[in-house]
Specification:
It comes from Sulfitobacter brevis. The chain is an alpha+beta fold. The chain has helices spanning 7-11, 17-27, 142-155; strands spanning 39-45, 48-54, 63-68, 71-76, 97-102, 107-115, 118-125. A four-stranded antiparallel sheet has the order 1-2-7-6, with no helix packed on it. It has a three-stranded antiparallel sheet with strand order 3-4-5, with no helix packed on it. The radius of gyration is 25 Å and the shape is elongated.
Length: 156
């Protein structure tokens, strides 16, 4: 496996720590990606997403959805089961889990619904107006520009 040194990226950039950390995390992954529980990530609209996680066998009280430090953390811990039950075959896994999803800037969790063995988490990207692109009108009045330049010189 190749290893990459990201030190030059850290040395020569300011404010891109999140990207560098994400690359570092992806490159250092040992390949043992957890597969339980299975999930889907769905794009509903340009700025709307849904994460659906199969949580069969868990009640609402067993599940936890939390947002902490730009990460969505979904975890489940099954309450102690009745020891009197004897299974001939047990194919529905209800073992504890914790699944993390790293959220991009301006992505907010807007809700979560647990129905029919699925946990659906709604996400919305809400970009502030100041960061949205805006069109600058091009004028043809050169005197207005020269007046602003003269005013700026008199101030300095």
């Amino acid at each position: 496996m190749r290893t990459f040194d990201l030190a030059p990226l850290y040395r020569s950039s300011v404010g891109f720590d999140q990207i560098a950390n994400m690359m570092d995390r992806v490159l250092s992954n040992d390949g043992a990606t957890p597969s339980y529980p299975p999930y889907n990530i769905e794009k509903l609209e340009d700025d709307a997403y849904r994460i659906s996680i199969a949580v069969a066998g868990f009640a609402d009280s067993d599940l936890s959805v939390e947002v902490r430090e730009k990460a969505l953390i979904v975890s489940a811990r099954k309450a102690d089961e009745d020891e009197a039950k004897k299974y001939l075959h047990r194919g529905i896994a209800t073992r504890a889990f914790e699944r993390r999803f790293h959220l991009a800037d301006h992505v907010q969790v807007t809700g979560a619904v647990h129905a029919n063995g699925m946990l659906h988490i709604e996400l919305q990207r809400q970009v502030p107006e100041a960061l949205k692109p805006r069109q600058i009108e091009i004028g043809s009045d050169l005197k207005a520009i020269q007046k602003d330049v003269v005013d700026a010189k008199s101030v300095n």
